[in-house]
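Design review, sub-item: ligand-bound model
Attendees: FS, YL, KQ
YL presented the inputs for the iron/sulfur cluster complex:
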Amino acid sequence: MANVYSTICPGCNFGCGLYIRENGNLDVDFRKSSPANSGKLCRFGMSLPRLYTPVRSMVDGKEVELTEAAKDAAKRISASKGSVAFLSFGNTTCEEHLAFGKLGEAYLCTGADFEALPKDTYQTISVGIPYSEIEAAKHIVLFIDPYEQYPLIVRRILSAKKKGAKITSVWWKDLPLADENLRPADVSKLKLSGDSLVIADFHPLSDMENVKNVLSLAKNAGARITFLKPFANSTGAYILSKDAKQKSLVQLVEDINKGAIKTLFCLESDPGEMIPAETLGKLTTLIVQTGMASAITKKAHVVIAHEPLYKKKGTLINNEGRAQSLGGEGTRGLDALGVMAGVKFEFGVLNESVKKTIGINSIDEFTIPKYDRPGYAAPQASVKPVDAKTALVSVFNPFMWFGLPDDNDFVEMNLNTARALKLLKSGTLKIRSNGSAIEKRFKIGPVQENVLLTGRKFGIEKGMLTPVEISR
Ligand code: SF4
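KQ shared the predicted structure:
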């Protein structure tokens, strides 16, 4: 008999429900009753069987039991006291995140750079608005590419459009659902009002000046704003870490580079996707706790392998602030964190604490808890103009965050840019950045001139926007 788990897609914080069926292989089944997505899934959700590759606990390349790996990790953490960082982007349950917060309070990194933002914006950034409010909006302004980055939101935007909403996009490419397409450099032409709803996103690689700028634009116009996020439980992780001193990804990279951090513990987070390889190479110890194999589990000194997310017991909080229960029974992740912290983490106690933090008595995916939505003062932003003739723009999407191979191994560019370079149809394009050069296939699209869009990492990126030189 097949085991069937009612679960949530980890591809982004949209909170799409689905079933995973274990039947020799893994299969995905649609869960029509799921309130965030009514059963629909994007390409990434359908690719989950490829993501959930089994992983084994290891110490220095030798297979061991989970407890042994956790004990070994505890020893290494204690030996490296004062120079250990704990990284979790928000790919795990609220209960594990709470336990993780206790283990790693000396240096907790969710990757998000909240320190660069005024405190009064924390809640607005952490908890988005219900999707039903997106469908009811009169004017939607997109600072994302919904098709690539958060595909299930497209249905909500189209539903608003059907009811007469105007859609404006501020992006490097014309979006098919937009009535008005502005380029990011022309954001000063954007007209917002009290009827506008701004949709932006927030993640460890966000440019904080841009985040402040969209917050200011919305505030000054009396518009609403909601931030989408890329990790299954980003919202939960941010709400639960509200009072913790969180380090940003930039700070972590700096601390590893200057030798202040020598041991890195990663919970359900692949640092290889966001931290340069030369920085990771400076660590003396890399400990990875995860439920699936990835490139980083091959490089880690210690791998603590627990059940994959769909087999876990626990709570995720989606972008709307909706609390959703995972359908599994597994608590091996919590047990391992307990071994490292030297305490026994009781699931029930942590679950009560999660409910108390969000002010609910039970986890009910059909009722969105009432969150405080305090006002904030418009932050001062100094967005730097891009001083590069040509830029490669990374369109962070679920495949990219997880390093899962996808078939779109090309860049998208404007026809005029391709003509100016005399590119040959079905030929390739040379892209150079800081001494590295790559050759890629290209696709023509309604993209801003001299901008290349990529939904895949090529290894030459310097964040979201990389100045490049291009040639035939
Ligand atoms: S929109 Fe996000 S949560 Fe939904 S299926 Fe796609 S990746 Fe998964």
